[in-house]
Amino acid sequence: MGRIARISEEIKREMSNIIQNELKDPRLSTIISITHLNVTKDLRYAKVFVSIMGTEEEKNSSLEGLRSAAGFIRREIGHRIQLRYTPEIQFELDNSIERGAYITKLIDETSKKDE
Predict the structure, then answer these.
(1) Fewer Cβ close by (within 10 Å): the C or N end of the chain?
(2) Which of 32, 51, 30 is nearest to 95 (CA)?
(3) CATH of the domain at 57
(4) What one-character DSSP code corresponds to residue 32?
C-alpha cells in the first residue's frame, strides 16, 4: 500500500470518528458512512464520498451540515494526523449503496415472478 493510500485510510478513519462522535449539527442524519475518499498526490484536497440514509430532504440537509462542518473537521484532522498540509475537504453524495439495494430488490421481485 502506497503512502497516499495509507494517509487516505488514516484520514477516512479519523473523519468517520469525528462525524459520528463530535458533530452536534441537528441537520446530520443518524447514519452517515464515508464510502470513498480521494486525496490528491500533494495532499491539498480530499474529495469525500458519503452515503446518507434517509429521504432526499434528509440527505440534502445532512450534506449541507457536513459541508458547513468541513473547516472544523479539517482542523481536527490536522491536530490528529501529523501532515505538512491538511487537505481541504469537499463532500459529495454517493448513492451506490442505495442503487445496489434497489437492483437487489428488482432481482428479488423478478425471481418471485418466475417461480
Answers:
(1) C
(2) 51
(3) 3.30.300.20
(4) E
